[in-house]
Amino acid sequence: MGTSYSKKAGLGFADLTFTPIYHDKSYLFHDVAVIGAGPAGLAASLKAADAGANVLLVDENPMLGGALTYHRFDVAGVRAAELREQLTAKVRHHKNITVLNSATCNGWFTDNYLPVIQGNRMYKVRAKQCIVASGAFEQHVVFRNNDIPGVVMSSAAMRLMTQYAIKPANKAVVLAGNDDGYLCALELLKNGVEVAVIVDMRSQSSDPLLHSAVIEKGINVLFNSTVYEALPSTDKKRLAAVQVHAITGRGKVAATGVTIPCDLLCMSAGYMPVYQLLCQAGAKLSYDDDSARFALTNLPKNLHVAGSANGVHELDAVINDGELAAYTSLTLLGLASDEPQPVTCNKQTNFPWPIFSHPKGKDFVDFDEDLQSKDIVNATRLGYRDVQLVKRFSTVGMGPSQGRHSALPTARLVADATNRTVTETGVTTARPPFVPEKLSHIAGRIFNPYKLTPMHQKHLELGAHMIPAGIWQRPAYYGNPIDRDKVVQQEVEMVRNAVGIIDVSTLGGLEVRGPDAAEFVNRIYTFGFLKQPVGKTRYAILTNEQGVVVDDGVSCRIGEDHFYITATTGGVDAVYREMTKWNAQWRLSVDIANVTSAFSAVNVAGPLARKVLSKVCFDVDLSNESFPYLAYREGTIEGVPIRLLRVGFVGELGYEIHMPSLFGATIWDALMAAGSEFNMKPFGVESQRLLRLEKGHIIVSQDTDGMSHPGELSLNWAINRKKPFFIGRRSVDIVMERQQTRKLVGFKLSSESCRPKEGHIVLASSDQKDCAITGNVTSSEYSTTIGANIGLAYVGIEQKEVGCKFPIRVDNGEIVMAEVVQLPFYDANNSRQEVI
Amino acid sequence: MPFSLLKYGLKNDYPFENDIDLPLPTELKKHYDVVIIGGGGHGVATAFYLAKYHGITNVAILEKGYLGGGNTARNTAVIRSNYLTSEGVRFYKESVDMFKGLSNEFDFNIMYSSRGQLTLAHTDATIRSFRQRAEVNTHFGGKTELIDPQQIKELVPTLNMNPADMPVLAGLWHMDGATARHDAVAWGYAKGATQRGVELHQLTEVTDVIIENGKAKGVKTNRGTVSCGCIIQAVAGHSSIVAAMAGIKMPITTYPLQAMVTQPVKPFLDPLVSSSALHCYVQQTGRGEIVFGGGSDPYPLYNTRSTLDLKESLLASAVEMFPFMANLKLMRQWSGITDMTSDYSPIMGLSPVENYYLDAGWGTWGFKSTPICGKSMAELVASGGKVPEIIAPFAMDRFDVFRQVNEMGATAASH
Ligand SMILES: Cc1cc2nc3c(=O)[nH]c(=O)nc-3n(C[C@H](O)[C@H](O)[C@H](O)COP(=O)(O)OP(=O)(O)OC[C@H]3O[C@@H](n4cnc5c(N)ncnc54)[C@H](O)[C@@H]3O)c2cc1C
């Protein structure tokens, strides 16, 4: 303990090569969870189970019984074992009780949500009622050298003897502040340990019978005395003797005393409730300075405390208290049972002031953190008077035991130094976990869900370079990353000159159906949708309440009361959440479904797209006249029903084909076969990005940021400001009235110039010192089609005119001058996507 | 390590005469020139600079709990300036610079430790925004660059380069990133302020604000009424509640924010490491504990309870980033209450009420701004309401005129 402890254990090494091993989680649901299988917990479990409640009993020890497994309750020393036998036998055989032993309930979370750790598993328990019968921690006495090995709590010595059959020493001294010290002395004797003396800090024992029992066995008792100093052996490794002085006042001792040789000192000065779980639940711990007793109050409704955690220490009263907690729980559960007697217990277990500060120090308050009583008192003298400040200044209670043994002496010392009561001083906040827990228990199974499109395997076979897109994987292009630029340009040329196909299954899909469907879509998106004809698509922009563009897609009107709307891959879940959130307020008669994974989609694009499609889709007239740009049709391919959207994102004749995901691969194969005679190949998202860039189409999130208003993006055409409402309408109106500060423009640089990267910044002037940042590059690529470096960038409002040259700072602080050009870069009158 | 050890070494007889950090509590006076509501870092820093630079010492800091017991005590002490906007970077950069000199200024060790902060990119969209942040930072004199996986491996050899099957593609390496002992910052300011005559009143809760003819005149507290020349509110998570006492409605939503810490182990992790995709940041304190933090809770609430859900998701991410940490033991989990603005920037400056000044909207990012914030608020008050240029962009009316300072992307993964 003490000094050597924190040097050796407190700062252990982390094993940086450790490989996680399997841990998992499981769920349990119970009427009553009882934490702690001591006499209170056992009694509570039995009473609750007898009344028909489904009980979970949790204890951190392998053996049930709590204090019954080591504590001595009577002179003869027979009561504990008998009672343990009797209670645990009943519990083991009770059909309504599930026992988790060697299991720690490591926290209390709102509404009795309890993590219970056992082995490599964490049970997440939901309990209607929870009874905490977690017992009490014995507290040490503060005196000089109380950290020497051989100075122990009485309960520790008792455990060694009764649970492990270990004789802990040859000659012991018992330092008592309550009668439990006498019982410990009897147990020591029984195990062949000589008891030199019982040093009792009180003026008499509470139970005269106990006193005569120890006298009878020849043990001497010194009243009104304490151990003032423990004396180490010459090698300083263990206890050799204790220095006993008469007590002359609170914390004061006579100048001289007697030295008593011994190799064990057992301390019985009192207990503190194991209050951690209860205080995590908001319970208040109070302490009565006169009776030196604790009480826990202010518990939430379905949480109860019983036994020594509740300040009840006498065995019959403890059982009574457990039954009372069970009765209260049963009543709340609506289950009938007999009402137990009210609990009476007068046993006083806490000595009020077991602190004997020594001028030479080493009178430890906190063994983890090596803190002596002066460290606590001095913190208050420096001005850190609040117990929380004392903790933070001195680090008391911050070690692995989290104040289990330091909280009480600290509270006493602080109260004394600042003229307050212990209750006023309080203890520092108890926070989860109850005992330090391995991260692996909480992390559980390492489980990373991901989604694959039905064509995923095909892409791999075709040599795709896959990149993540949210929780999806998408082909960036089909080829080796070393050849990235070349491959992308080839794929773009293929689409511009012939035909290509791209898997767009990751696009979000939302179905809106019901009598109010049109009204709903009209309120969500900025365009007008009330009059959108059946069989037509319309561009849909979503703004948030700040008027910022947050998503876009295409709305297809399938029927009067049926819309199918696409959303961005990364945005669809948020859009769906927004839709349901808003309709929780609007209460329109619509049904909203996120069908992203139910539908797969491909886009067949290029001048030859119609030829490819007409080889597999026979029931739709694909001609420009009857299936014009922006129209929506339904048909079949290979007997599979499909939704067809005539779109123009990449700027060529194009059809988006949406089909049930189950048939995604079938239709992909059919289209690939149909396209083979036209040399149709797949293209990836990076090629698609360049294609759309040539057309000047934005990608929401790449070309927009948290401030992008429709005006900055030149999207005013897609905002219907005649309709009464859409989300963000008020903000959009205000922003439209204001002077804009920046604008997203297309820019061009000669092909020899250094190509800016996405994220490079735009400056107000090319003299970069002290000049303002006016914008940033959002898209940038070399375009073979245009024969130049092209891109999109935010620029200052004074830089937005076509022909304006503006500085971009590229890598290494170099400046390149880009020129604003009219968008789109390619096919200005849209003839390629619309007319053919 | 106990703080006293740093301060006094192993001397037995501290504290020395006159070496008192905080004076004994006194009665409240009837009147102060300045009342500061909230004894967190911001409140005491403001008082410190009022006294030190402007000679204004008839000042009371009213704190309902204990000194620095709000978010100052709960935060994870990330100090950095690698934000996105020009307004933000300029402001936070100034604060980081001030932090470097604080220990000297206080003659009180705040354990400032410049470690560098590394944020991981797992998608090309993140790389784009990192490049922009690096460029903006460099423009204002900060040390931030975009680095590649090889450089990341060298900086943090223990990092898993493929956490949650999301390969690390690049990193934003912010060499100015640092940390400090959060409590000590509040104590240092409080000590300096009270030594100059400022009064710190703990356990003193403001229950109402007295306004006459549109002017702030005083406050009611659990210890009586106090009149004053002006009021500064610096109450972090309680901004909307306190502002409402002055009749001010704030554009703020309040969420809990949680953090957690392991048992201490020997130092192995120097930089602060975060991943936006995994919503997790990891750092090792001077004591050797590993601190984990992430995003705010998903729903608004005024409650400092911890949740199991957050602990599970955060630690799952942490174990993805550093698999061997599965074997470390978590010691404590806690939470604070954060007042979030829609643009992730603070609200500072004037309010609709005369002589009532706002220091709010600090959400998850306000510890690092403690020095600059205190300095600017003091300047604002001392000048009788002339808004210093560096905080002008953060005025509350920016929400009416749509001049937000959007730092969402630069704030989500680390505070
Ligand atoms: C878990 C967590 C992690 C964080 N991590 C970081 C980080 O890494 N880096 C970073 O820069 N920021 C971080 N923050 C944010 C940062 O903690 C805060 O923004 C900052 O501490 C705010 O300082 P403050 O002095 O304004 O507030 P606080 O320290 O909260 O002080 C406000 C004080 O006002 C008092 N008060 C409230 N109401 C009243 C009243 N009616 N009367 C009197 N007193 C009142 C409170 O008791 C409190 O002490 C984090 C926050 C949390 C919760």
TrEMBL record, chain A:
Residue runs in coiled coils: none
Keywords of this entry: Aminotransferase, Oxidoreductase, Transferase
Pfam families noted in UniProt: GCV_T, GCV_T_C, Pyr_redox_2, SO_alpha_A3
Domain Aminomethyltransferase C-terminal, residue spans: 742-827
InterPro entries: BFD-like_2Fe2S-bd_dom_sf, FAD/NAD-bd_sf, FAD/NAD-binding_dom, GcvT/YgfZ/DmdA, GcvT/YgfZ_C, GcvT_C, GCVT_N, SoxA_A3
Domain FAD/NAD(P)-binding: 30-285
Sequence ranges assigned to domain SoxA A3 in this UniProt record: 360-444
GCVT N-terminal domain boundaries: 455-723
Family per similarity comment: Belongs to the GcvT family.
Cross-referenced PANTHER family: AMINOMETHYLTRANSFERASE, AMINOMETHYLTRANSFERASE, MITOCHONDRIAL
Name the record gives this protein: FAD-dependent oxidoreductase
Organism: Marinomonas phaeophyticola
Automatic annotation (TrEMBL), chain B:
Limits of the Rhodanese domain: 34-78
UniProt keyword Oxidoreductase, yes or no: yes
Alphabetic keyword roster: Oxidoreductase
Keyword Nuclease attached: no
Source species, domain of life: Bacteria
PANTHER family: FAD-DEPENDENT OXIDOREDUCTASE DOMAIN-CONTAINING PROTEIN 1 (PTHR13847:SF287), SARCOSINE DEHYDROGENASE-RELATED (PTHR13847)
Protein name: FAD-dependent oxidoreductase
Organism (species): Marinomonas phaeophyticola
